[in-house]
Write a structure and sequence with these properties.
This protein has 11 helices and 7 strands. By secondary structure, it is of the alpha/beta class. The protein has one domain: Rossmann fold, CATH 3.40.50. Strand 1, helix 5 and strand 2 form a beta-alpha-beta unit.
């Protein structure tokens, strides 16, 4: 498993905010008129997009009284959705400086800069005090973090007792290796896939009780089939979408992801846990 510098380098775009600005221009919007729903195609950098976010985050019972931690927040898309849809206050942390900086600008564009804070840093050593958050979640993050025990220990440290922690990650469900590149890694050197059993063991070690688990393989296959059909019908990707985040190898990354899921090697899995 490579270090945090290599992981951050993998996600760094170089001119991300300019690319997003061009993308919103392509849909007839400006920074002054763009909405959270307009940003959804690029904000939801995980399998299933906004539909997956709703079905996952609804399980965390968030309210306008909740202070929520977004672990590996990326651009802050789920944070913006949680803040706007549930009224929650959200703090996000991510390794990739460009994602955090662009995400803060997007929060200002949609008027959420006072309810969302995005911080550059490592989820393995978070700059937050003990027992400060009412809930936490991570979406397609653990595939880049080998030390799940330390990760979940840090999440447990900053959560209040009884808090809920939701995970929506791509997990290893087969016995064979996967085809690279994929959206989170060009090669196995920056991939840290683990099985649901390994996740659950690390969560339990950190003091969590697993309350729900759901394999979303069939949901993912339907999502990729629809994505392929829409892209073909349109003659290419839309002006604004997650293809902007994946660089020149985006087509093969998406194909490999879909093929790996279809072959049973990996699947997106939800785990919901409660801190003792």
């Amino acid at each position: 498993m490579a270090g945090s510098r290599e992981v951050a380098k993998h996600y760094t775009h170089g001119s991300l905010l300019d690319a997003i600005r061009d993308g919103i221009g392509g849909i007839g919007k400006t920074p002054e008129t763009v909405t959270i729903d307009d940003l959804a195609p690029i904000d939801e950098f995980h399998i299933g997009g906004r539909v997956a976010s709703v079905e996952f985050l609804d399980q965390l019972s968030l309210t306008n009284q909740s202070h929520v931690l977004d672990v590996g927040c990326g651009l802050g898309g789920p944070a913006r959705f949680a803040a706007s849809h549930y009224g929650a206050t959200v703090t996000g942390i991510d390794l990739t400086a460009e994602f955090v900086q662009a995400g803060q600008v997007l929060c200002r564009w949609v008027g959420l800069e006072n309810t969302i804070t995005l911080v550059e840093g490592s989820a393995l050593a978070m700059p937050f005090g003990n027992s400060g958050f009412d809930a936490a979640y991570m979406m397609h993050v653990g595939m880049n973090i080998a030390d799940k025990e330390t990760l979940f220990g840090e999440v447990a440290r900053v959560l209040k007792p009884g808090a809920t922690f939701g995970i929506y990650d791509v997990m290893q469900t087969g016995d064979t290796g996967i085809s690279f590149p994929v959206p989170w890694a060009e090669t196995a050197a920056t991939s840290a896939l683990a099985s649901p059993g390994q996740y659950k063991s690390a969560l339990e070690t950190a003091g969590f009780e697993i309350t729900a688990q759901r394999n979303r393989r069939h949901f993912a296959l339907a999502f990729f089939a629809e994505l392929a059909a829409l892209t073909k019908a349109a003659g290419g990707p839309p002006p604004l979408g997650i293809h902007i985040l994946m660089g020149e190898s985006r087509a093969i990354k998406v194909k490999n992801m879909a093929d790996n899921i279809a072959a049973g090697r990996i699947a997106p899995v939800e785990l919901i846990a409660r801190l003792y």
